[in-house]
Amino acid sequence: MPSEHFATIFQRDLDRLDGLADHEWIPRAAAHRRMTWGGVVASAAIAVVVAVVALSAQAAREAQLTQDDAAATSSPDFVLGSQGAAGPSPSASPVASSNAWLTAAPTCPPGRILALDITQPPPPGSVPGTGATGPEEAFRKSYPTVTEFKMFPMGGSSVWIVAGGQTYIAYRVGSPGNYDWFAYPAKVIECRTPTNPRTAPPTTPQPGGSPSSGPKTVG
Amino acid sequence: MLDQSSGPNAERWERLYREEAPRVFRALLATLRDRDAARDALHEAFLAGLERPPARDENLAGWLFRVALRKSRRGPYRPLLSGIADALWPAAGNDEIARALDRLEAGRLLQLLTERQRAIVIAQYYLGLEQAEIARLFNVRRGTVAATLTQALARMRRGGQHAI
Question: Could you tell me which of A170, A174, A163 has the C-alpha nearest to residue A134?
C-alpha cells in the first residue's frame, strides 16, 4: 500500500467524524465547564498553599494579639473549600443558605479560620497582570452588568462583595502588582479549627467583620 | 474568560481558531479516541493562544494540534487520574467514538498504532504537515519523525492486510 494512499484514506475518513456543536468550540464559563484533571490538581495545590498560609497567619496572630486586638485587626484569612470534595466536617451545619453575610463580611471566632467555596476560572486561571488595579474595578470588569453592589473589607487583600443576593470575593492573585485583583463568586462554608478541620465542630460564621470594616455601597 | 481578553487581538485569534478548529478537533479525536479529552485539549489550546498567540499564522492547525496534545497529557499523574476518572464516570460518548472509528478504514489503521505514532501520522497525512514542520512542532529531530512514520506505515501495512 503506497504511503500516498494513506493520505487519501485519512482525508476521506476523518472528515466524516462528527465535529463539535457550535456552542462547544469556545470554552464555556467556569461554572459549566468540565475542569480537567490538571485543573483539579492545580486547584487542590492552590487550596493547600492558601490553607497553609492562612494557618500560619492564624497561629502567629494568636500568639501575638489579644482577642480584642485580633478582632480589631482586619483578617484576610480564609481557606478554599468546596461543598463536595473538601466539604464541611461531618457535623457541620449548612451555613451557606443563611443570608447573614449579605449585609456584612463573614468572620470567625478567634482560633477558627473561614472556609469559602470560591468558583475559580478554568485553567490557566487568573493570570497576574491581567486583572484589575483594585477590588471594585475587578468586580466591574468581571461582572459589567452588575451596577449595584456593596463591598466589605475583610482585611489585607480581600474584599467581600454582595450584589443582588449573590456573594463574591475579590482578592489579589500572585505578587502585588498593578493588575492583580480578581473577583469570583464565593460562598461561606463554615469556620474551621486549624488543628483538626475535619473533626472539630464547626462554628457558623458571624456577620459583621472587623469594627473598622464598614461597607462601601456602590451603584 | 473571553471578556477579560477582549480586543482586536482576541477577536482575530478567535476567528483564526474557528477556521482551523474543526479539522484539528477531528485530528485530536482520532489521536486521543476520547471526545471530552479532545474537546478539552482544544479549549486549552485556544486559551493558550488567547494568552500568547503563535508568532506566525502559518501552520496554525499544527500549532493547535501540538499545544492541545501537550495539554492533554500535562502532569505526571494525569494518566492515573484519568484512569480513575474513567473508572468512576465512564464516558459513554467514547464508546460511540470508538465505534465510529472502527467503522472507518482510517480508524482501524490508527488503532494499530501507539498514541505518539497516531499523532505524527495524523499530522502528516491528515493535517498535511511536512516532516520538518512536525519535527519543529513536536520538538524532536526530523529523523525521529521519519523513523516513527516508517514504523507506523509498516504496522499499518501489516495490519491492513488482515484488517481491511
Answer: A170
Which of A20, A36, A127 lies closest to B25 in CB terms? A20
Residue B99 reports pLDDT greater than 60: yes
Query: A37, B36: Cβ pair inside 8 Å?
Result: no
Contacts of A18 in chain B (CB under 8 A): 100
What pLDDT is stored for residue B9 in this prediction?
A: 77
DSSP three-state, residue B39: helix
Question: How far is Cα A164 from Cα A104, in angstroms, rounded to an integer?
Answer: 14
Among the partner-chain residues A1, A12, A19, the one whose CB lies closest to the CB of B25 is: A19
Residues 39-98 of A with CB under 8 A from B: 40-41
**Three-class DSSP category at B149:** helix
- Substitution target from B13, B44, B151 for chain A, most A beta carbons within 10 A: B44
Taking CB atoms and an 8 Å limit, are A25 and B18 in contact across chains?
yes
Do B94 and B85 contact (CB within 8 A), yes or no?
Answer: no
Contact A172, A184 (CB under 8 A): no
Under 8 Å CB-to-CB from A130, ≥6 apart: which residues? A179, B4, B5
ipTM for the assembly: 0.77
Judge whether B50 and B13 are in contact, CB under 8 Å.
yes
- Among the listed ranges A13-27, B11-25, B35-49, which one has the minimum average pLDDT value? A13-27
Q: Which of B26, B85, B128 sits opposite A17 (nearest CB)?
A: B26
What's the rounded mean pLDDT across residues A182-188?
A: 87
Selected residue with higher pLDDT from B92 and B107: B107
Size of interface A-B (CB pairs under 8 A): 105
DSSP string, A61-74: HHHH--HHHHHHS-
Q: Average pLDDT of B13-38?
A: 89
Closest-CA residue to A118 (of A80, A153, A162): A80
Chain A residue whose CA is closest to B93: A18
Which segment, A43-52, A56-65, B89-98, is predicted with the most confidence on average? A43-52
Distances (CA, A) of B102 to A86, B95, B97, B119, B162: 41, 10, 8, 18, 14
Position A180 scores a pLDDT of 80
Chain A residue with the nearest C-alpha to that of B40: A36
